[in-house]
Structure formats: C-alpha cells, structure tokens
Specification:
Blueprint lengths: L21 H8 L9 E3 L20 H5 L48 H8 L11 E5 L1 H6 L1 E2 L2 E6 L2 E4 L11 H5 L4 E2 L1 H8 L4 H4 L4 E5 L20 H4 L17 H4 L6 E6 L3 E7 L10 E6 L2 E8 L2 E9 L3 E10 L4 E8 L9 E3 L5 E4 L7 E11 L4 E7 L4 E2 L8 E7 L2 E7 L1 E2 L17 E7 L7 H6 L5 E5 L15 E7 L4 H13 L5 E8 L8 H10 L3 E7 L9 E2 L4 H7 L9 E6 L2 H13 L7 E3 L3
Parallel strand pairs: 1-2, 2-7, 4-6, 25-26, 25-29, 26-27, 27-28, 29-30
Antiparallel strand pairs: 3-4, 4-5, 5-7, 8-9, 9-14, 10-11, 10-19, 11-12, 12-15, 12-16, 13-14, 17-18, 17-24, 18-23, 20-21, 20-24, 22-23
The structure holds flavin-adenine dinucleotide and NADP nicotinamide-adenine-dinucleotide phosphate (NAP).
EC number: 1.6.2.2
InterPro entries: Cbr1-like_FAD-bd_dom, CS_dom, Cyt_B5-like_heme/steroid-bd, Cyt_B5-like_heme/steroid_sf, Cyt_B5_heme-BS, Cytochrome_b5/Flavoprotein_Rdt, FAD-bd_FR_type, FNR_nucleotide-bd
Family: Belongs to the flavoprotein pyridine nucleotide cytochrome reductase family.
C-alpha cells in the first residue's frame, strides 16, 4: 500500500460538500445516527461477516456476440467496472437495454439485485459491516486478510468498506470488485469512475479508517476529526491580504517551464476585484468556474491538466451576482464582486480548503451547485430535453465535448451520473441557439423505465433542483485546428456530444469543408432531432447526415445494421487525399470500442480519432 494513502481523506471526502459515510458523521458531529448508533473502537477487527454465495450476473447475450471487449474480463474494458458504475460499460453486457426486437438473446438483471434493491437494503437497518455498528482503525495487515468474496474489505481514500454484501449488486460484477479485495482500491476506483458517489452508496459498509502510520502524527480516536489532517486548512487559518508568497503555490507548472498562477485583489467603494494571473495564453471564459455558496467563494481555473484554486471565506457580504472577464492575450481573469455595503475591506477573507494551490485536475474532486429545472420537453418517445438554470452566484460554461455529473438523492442515497450538455437546438434559419448569458444548461436525456437515475430525473417538477458538477472530459477545441473533414459516429444518446461539436465546427472553423454524421439507432422513432438534422443538411452544404437503423420496420429505405467495415468505407470519404481529418465516436461502450478498432483497421491514427467515454 502506498504511503500517500494516509493523507487521502483530506482530499475530498472530508471537506467537500458531499456527506461523509454515516459513521463519519457520528465522529464529526458527535451524535450517533438515529437508526443504528456506531462507535469507533481501537484495535483490529475480529468479527467477520457471514459467508455469502455471491453469484454474478450472467454475461451471455448480444454483447458477447458483437464485441469481445464488452466482457469485463477481457480487452480494454478490463477494470472498467467497479462499485456503482453501469455508465462506463453501459449498457451492461446483460442489460435489458441490450434487448432489441431483432431476435437477440435476453438476460435480465438478477431479480432483487438492482442498485435500487441495494439502496433498500442499506436502509433496512441490517448490519452490513459485520461489526455491529463499531467503527475500527484498520491496519494494512488486517485489510489484507479480508480478500475473499465472502469476506471482502476495500480501502478507498483512507476509509475501509466491507463490500461483501454489495458483491451481488455491483453493476460491473463481482470479479471487478474483487480486483481491489483486501487492498487500497483508490487508484483503480479513480481510473474507472472517480465521480461515483461511493461514500453515499457504501455508507452502511464503513468498517472504519486505515490506521495512521507512525510517520504521521497520530490522532486520538475519541476526539477523531478528519479535519485534523488538513493542517493547511484549519491550523493556518490566516487573514489574506492579497497575494500569498509564491513559494506557497505548488510550483508544478514552473517545473514544466511555465510560471505559476497567482492572484491579487483590489477594491473601490462598491466593488472588489479578484485578479487571477494565469500567465497562460489559451485562457477563456470556459477556463474559470466561480461559485459563491454560503460563506465560501471558490474560483477554479483550469490550466492544462491542473486546477488553480482560490477558495476563501470572504470577510464581508457580497451581492449574489458577479461578473467574470478574461483578458485572453495575457491570461488574466478578473472576477468583479459587488459589495453589499460600501465599507472598506481590510482583508479579503480566510483561506479555505486548497486555497491558492495548483493541483492536478484529477485530484480536485467534483464540486457541485444546485440548479433549478426550468423546462422539460419531449424529443422522442423516451428522450427529453431538460433545461437547468445555474444559480446567479455561479459562473460555469461547459466546454464543447465535455460532460458534467448530475446528482440526485434517491431514497436517501446520493446518486451521480454523467451527462453531456447540448445546445437547445441545432443551428437553423429560424431559430438561434439560446445563449442568455450562459445561465442555462440543456441536456438530452433518455429515460430508462428500469433505470436508477433517469426515472427520478423525469419525476422532477419545474422549479425542483438538481446538483450539477464542474465539467470534465478530454476533448480539446484545438483538435479542430485547420480541420477540413469532420466525421461523427453516434449511437443513441451518443449523439449528445456531437451537438455542440456540430454547432461549433460549422460556425467557427473556416478551414472546414465537410462534416458528416452517421447516426445509429434502433428504429426511426429513436432518432433524436431527425428533422433538425435534415434541415441543417439542407441549409449547410458542408453537412451531411446518414441514419442507420438496427431494428427498422419493413418500410425503412435507409441503411440498416450495425457499425461495420462496409458502412465505414463508404462514409469516411475525405474531401481530398491529405485532408486534415477528425473522427468523433460516441455511443454504448461496445459500439465505441468496435468503432475504434474498425477505424484503426482503416489506418486512421490515434490523433485522428476522438472517442467519448466516462
Ligand atoms: P441504469 O440504472 O444505469 O439502467 C439503465 C438500463 O440498464 C435499465 O434498463 C437497467 O435495468 C439496465 N441495467 C443497468 N445495470 C444493469 C446490469 N448490471 N445488468 C443488466 N441490466 C442493467 N445519457 C443521456 O441520456 N444523455 C447524455 O447526455 C449522456 N451523457 C453521458 C456522458 C457520459 C460521459 C457517459 C459515460 C454517459 C452518458 N449518458 C448519457 C448515460 C448516463 O450517464 C446514464 O448511464 C443513463 O442515463 C442511464 O442511467 P440510469 O441510472 O437511469 O439507468
Ligand atoms: P441504444 O438505443 O441502445 O443503441 C443505439 C444503437 O447502437 C442501436 O442501433 C444499437 O443496436 C447500437 N448498438 C448497441 N450496442 C452495440 C454494439 N455492441 N455494437 C454495435 N452497435 C451497437 O443506445 P442508448 O440507449 O441511447 O445508449 C447510448 C449509450 O451512449 C449509453 O451507453 C450512454 O452511456 C452512452 N453515452 C456516452 C456518452 C459519453 O460521452 N461517453 C455520452 C452520451 C451517451 P441494437 O439495436 O442492436 O442495440
């Protein structure tokens, strides 16, 4: 086990907005949970949970036929399923979603083992840890002992979970979970789905936390507080008066030959301006995300693969709305706050978690704000266009090709799923896409009646709230540079990243000669925005769309089947022999994986292919 693990709890689970596991609440607030009081005891765990049969979902069916990599035990898909992660391998090989009218074999979910069933079990009051409510300090040696299917503990970010009872409910299957058995699964978890809210999903499985190694100051169990570890936050709670010394900023970029970002602030009677000097040229309004929630003011600036964070408890009150400006050629960001009272501020405020630090983006954790549901409009028989409004105290623009995570509390458990924002429509002569100060975010979301998240989302009333995370994803606008041919391969809701890509490419890339979309669906009724796509193809001669159906009616005259060498060879015709080309692909994971293989077979390079995954 890596030593760095011992510090991990500081990173996200402790100080972020998300709740700590139930037992941890006990520790933080001193009051036991009403359902089942749990207390920490020293020493090793002696109690072992009773043995379980722990069978896995059957993995027969269509996924095996069409795509070997869909099997969790093989190929690039390996390691991609752990804990609550239907989405990455979505739909699961045995998923009901894989059941089509085309005579494909059907393997239903094992009865009573859906994630909803798991949530019910966690609410049943059953002892899922096998420790009758005690929370213990777990040593490395002890953790290693619990490495069997019928006795499986896993450590994530310093907390140890008994996942034995969860085995049968894990959407990715037992084998994936067993890869981390008796060990620190943090890296594996982060590689696969760091966004999954395991704290909430597994809160009834918390055994305790890893024992602190002697090199680290020991904390007493009685007055245990995870904040104790975060010395820079609590102990150095000092007044900010403009820029901190440069040495206090992690100088990662300097190591790469770039200078570190810094910040400063100044004021007039009515405003306070926080200025962030990124010292980078490719900064724009998408690069900075600002939130003012309760007492916390937080600005996260994305610089390459790092986040530069300003996180302050402001010394005085400000108005809800603020403005953000970017001076692109010097990489300067100005955040203009309106004072509630026109007094002179002696200092800006107190530093909060990660303030004035530059950290790898993957380590920042997901930051959420509550957005109001403004409208919900049917698009196909099962897909809807949702419009959410950001709070006035948030500046957030989701870059082209990126996704966010939506979070809802379902039966007391926080559930998180990724979704890709779209524009409200495709460009047309009749309707300009809604911009409205970027306060609105649109999503095209398919509702799965047997799904965990989407039926809840569908139940929301106008005015209800959904939590929306910061954007993630590795698509870069620079991939469009000098682009001549853009080919888009989308299946089902895999169309969603293509919406902004289409809009952006057709309006901003002068070199573009040809944009083609091949859109795979089951039936005509499943095609999202068909008439908009046809109108766009009619209006813009550079754009062409082809629909391919896997389960069409006999009247369908268009293309049929699945992604195949024959379909691709016809589709991928360049405008000229050496044209600069980009191919984007998105859909069910096996579709995407198969598409990538076929594209490589046709000698397209890695740089010419962008696949969208979680
Ligand atoms: P789930 O609970 O995941 O279930 C869906 C279906 O699969 C149900 O029929 C269920 O019964 C079945 N199922 C689930 N697990 C199993 C299993 N183990 N065995 C058998 N059957 C199973 N979707 C959109 O609609 N729009 C988007 O913009 C969008 N963007 C995305 C972006 C990214 C990066 C990713 C990775 C996914 C995106 N998705 C998008 C998919 C989305 O995240 C969810 O996966 C989807 O909405 C289904 O969620 P759910 O909880 O409702 O369904
Ligand atoms: P769907 O309707 O089930 O399928 C769309 C089309 O893809 C159908 O024609 C289907 O054929 C075909 N298909 C499915 N599996 C295939 C395979 N293994 N090989 C070849 N073709 C295959 O799709 P959906 O329900 O909308 O699901 C969309 C998927 O896209 C979800 O898994 C979602 O997670 C993913 N998505 C990812 C992102 C991202 O950014 N990563 C964004 C949005 C959506 P059949 O009729 O034979 O099934």
């Amino acid at each position: 086990m890596r030593t760095s693990l011992w510090f991990l709890p500081c990173r996200r689970s402790v100080l972020s907005a998300g709740p700590a596991p139930r037992g941890l609440d006990v520790l933080r607030h001193g009051a036991p949970h009403p359902g089942r009081p749990r207390k920490w005891v020293g020493g090793l765990a002696s109690a072992r949970p009773r043995s379980r049969s722990g069978r896995c979902y059957s993995r027969r069916g269509r996924a095996e036929r069409s795509c070997r990599a869909a099997d969790p035990g093989q190929g690039p898909g390996q390691g991609s399923r752990m804990l609550n992660v239907p989405s990455q391998s979505f739909p699961a090989p045995s998923s009901q979603q894989r059941v089509a009218s085309g005579g494909r074999s059907k393997v239903p979910l094992k009865q009573g083992r859906s994630l909803m069933d798991w949530i019910r079990l966690t609410k049943s009051g059953k002892d899922l840890t096998g420790l009758k409510g005690r929370l213990i300090e777990v040593t490395e040696e002890e953790l290693k002992k619990h490495n069997q299917k019928d006795d499986c503990w896993i450590c994530i970010r310093g907390f140890v979970y008994n996942v034995t009872p969860y085995m049968e409910y894990h959407p990715g299957g037992e084998d994936e979970l067993m890869r981390a058995a008796g060990s620190d699964g943090t890296d594996l978890f982060d590689q696969v789905h760091r966004w999954v809210n395991y704290e909430s999903m597994l809160k009834e499985c918390v055994v305790g936390r890893m024992a602190v190694k002697s090199a680290v100051p020991k904390v007493s169990l009685s007055g245990f507080s995870f904040l104790n570890h975060c010395t820079d936050y609590r102990e150095e709670k000092k007044v900010l008066n403009g820029m901190l010394p440069k040495s206090q900023v992690t100088d990662t970029l300097a190591k790469e030959g770039r200078s570190s970002p810094s910040y400063d602030w100044f004021q007039t009677d009515s405003i306070v301006t926080i200025v962030i000097y990124t010292k980078q040229k490719d900064i724009n309004l998408d690069s900075v995300i600002v939130d003012h929630q309760d007492d916390s003011f937080r600005a996260e600036t994305l610089i390459k693969d790092y986040s530069y964070i300003i996180h302050i408890e402001l010394s005085h009150e400000i108005e809800e709305d603020f403005s953000v400006r970017v001076v692109e050629n010097v990489g300067k960001i100005e955040i203009v706050l309106k004072k509630k009272e026109s007094t002179s501020w002696k200092h800006l405020g107190h530093p909060l978690e990660n303030h004035n630090s530059l950290i790898p983006k993957k380590d920042t954790g997901l930051y959420y704000r509550k957005c109001r549901l403004i409208s919900k409009e049917g698009v196909t028989h099962d897909t809807k266009l949702f419009c959410l409004m950001l709070p006035p105290s948030t500046h957030l623009q989701v870059p082209v090709g990126q996704h966010v995570y939506l979070k809802l509390t379902i039966t007391g458990t926080e559930i998180v799923k990724p979704y890709t924002p779209v524009s409200d429509s495709l460009p047309s002569e009749f309707k300009e896409p809604v911009l409205l100060n970027n306060k609105y975010i649109f999503f095209l979301i398919k509702i799965y009646p047997a799904g965990l998240f989407t039926p809840e989302l569908d139940q929301l009333q106008i005015g209800d709230f959904v939590s929306v995370s910061n954007p993630e994803g590795n698509f870069k606008i620079s991939q469009f540079q000098e682009l001549e041919d853009l080919f888009l391969l989308a299946a089902g809701t895999g169309f969603t990243p293509m919406v902004k890509i289409l809009n952006f490419a057709l309006t901003n890339i002068p070199s573009l000669r040809k944009v083609k979309l091949m859109f795979f669906n089951k039936t005509e009724d499943d095609i999202i925005w068909r008439s908009q796509l046809e109108k766009l193809a009619f209006k813009d001669k550079r754009f062409d769309v082809e629909f391919v159906l896997s389960a069409p009616t006999s009247e369908w005259n268009g293309k049929r089947g699945h992604i195949s060498p024959a379909l691709l060879s016809e589709f991928l015709k360049r405008s000229s022999d050496n044209s600069k080309v980009l191919i984007c692909i998105c859909g069910p994971t096996p579709f995407t994986e198969q598409g990538i293989r076929l594209l490589h077979d046709r000698n397209f390079s890695k740089e010419e292919i962008h696949s969208f995954t979680a």
